[in-house]
Amino acid sequence: MILVLGGARSGKSRFAEGLAAGCALERHYVATGRAFDDEMRDRIARHRTDRGDGWTTHEEPIDLVGLLRLIDDPARVVLVDCLTLWATNLMLEAQDLAARSAELAELLPNLKARVILVSNEVGLGIVPENRMAREFRDHAGRLHQMIAACAAEVYFVAAGLPLKMKG
Amino acid sequence: MILVLGGARSGKSRFAEGLAAGCALERHYVATGRAFDDEMRDRIARHRTDRGDGWTTHEEPIDLVGLLRLIDDPARVVLVDCLTLWATNLMLEAQDLAARSAELAELLPNLKARVILVSNEVGLGIVPENRMAREFRDHAGRLHQMIAACAAEVYFVAAGLPLKMKG
Amino acid sequence: MILVLGGARSGKSRFAEGLAAGCALERHYVATGRAFDDEMRDRIARHRTDRGDGWTTHEEPIDLVGLLRLIDDPARVVLVDCLTLWATNLMLEAQDLAARSAELAELLPNLKARVILVSNEVGLGIVPENRMAREFRDHAGRLHQMIAACAAEVYFVAAGLPLKMKG
């Protein structure tokens, strides 16, 4: 399992897609973003165009754990893009983020598919004034730590360039 | 002297605690956070639980320089967690952050204890709209530069994984 | 061509100046910041003092491409500080940031001068609530990717310490 971290428009998705393309496996893409406004719809469409053909796409904003179980197969590489949007969706639905994160972290090492997870690093700015934003970045940080601990490789991407943190 | 930088919930405290535990020295923990609301009290309590036993804890939100002088001893490892909260406290008391930072940077190379300093990297987000936040991140950046310049080792921690920047 | 990325007060300008000073070339400094208020005027003056003598300074907030063409010379090292302020100025004038960025990325590999570009990494904080700020960090991220792709060397600077990402 591989974790790819990076900032906004850091090239993390493209880098993760390159990793997936490097495996001679059936490519599955899990989009967690919800197209609730035009800005988000544009972002999703642009990602789809950047990605090109050769992918089976699944859209799942909430039940990531269920979907990963369902599509798990050793003949597949599954790219999840991204954990931050999934966590945002959970928070907006007032779900227990800590519990959902623990479920995901527990499932990942048991999957047979090759899994690549993309996530946004959001904890390197000034402390947000908004309490929900502070809670969110705490959750995101803990989630990244849990997943990085069991990942085989962890990359930090900036300006399209990967820095290997683990593996 | 070692500087450990990282984002919110990046695992920087835990990594620093591991470094301290690796020395066969008497462990002292300097907590700079002030428990002025429930959120902060929770955060401090969680850190204390994560840390476990085997530490002598000092709470000092303002006079870090005085405390470090007082508890300095070659038989000790002193972990300061964290510089960002100390700088926040100084700013809220309208103290001269540049002067206090210079005092700290001057003291550090002269201490006999092994010192490990934890601090938050806060300068990698969008420019804050709030002027005080902009000043704060400028001060924090300058403080990190001063301390990194005289540190033996500097680490940047993300997702619980350390990246050695110096040493 | 060299790209130097870093956060606010990370020491990226000073590191870039050191790289420029290391070349035995005529030193040109391109300041893109606009002194529209006292805070900005202070920042520019402090940078000028930090830099010292031995530089020819050009101030160009908008037409960076035109200026780089004009002063291009194989006997020169040209330090642009910084791309983020240039992009901010373009956005405030409602210019087409994507088009201007593409022009710059196209020009850079064809310049004869040794060029060093400094830019702020702004995409590692929580998603900004302000839509313009979100657009800005998307543009900045794409610009960094384009430039990093054709740069010979890319550095990420934190606490005054450079981390080589490429080269």
From TrEMBL, chains A, B, C:
Supply one GO molecular-function term.
adenosylcobinamide kinase activity
Q: What class of enzyme is it?
A: transferase
Q: What is its EC number?
A: 2.7.1.156, 2.7.7.62
Quick check: keyword Hydrolase in the entry? no
The pathway it acts in is: Cofactor biosynthesis; adenosylcobalamin biosynthesis; adenosylcobalamin from cob(II)yrinate a,c-diamide: step 6/7; Cofactor biosynthesis; adenosylcobalamin biosynthesis; adenosylcobalamin from cob(II)yrinate a,c-diamide: step 5/7
Keyword terms: ATP-binding, Cobalamin biosynthesis, GTP-binding, Kinase, Nucleotide-binding, Transferase
Active-site residue numbers: 47 (gmp-histidine intermediate)
Annotated GO biological process: cobalamin biosynthetic process
Family note: Belongs to the CobU/CobP family.
**Role summary:** Catalyzes ATP-dependent phosphorylation of adenosylcobinamide and addition of GMP to adenosylcobinamide phosphate.
Which NCBIfam families does the record cross-reference, listed alphabetically? Answer: PRK05800.1 (NF004469)
Q: Give the protein's recorded name.
A: Bifunctional adenosylcobalamin biosynthesis protein
Q: Which gene encodes it?
A: cobU
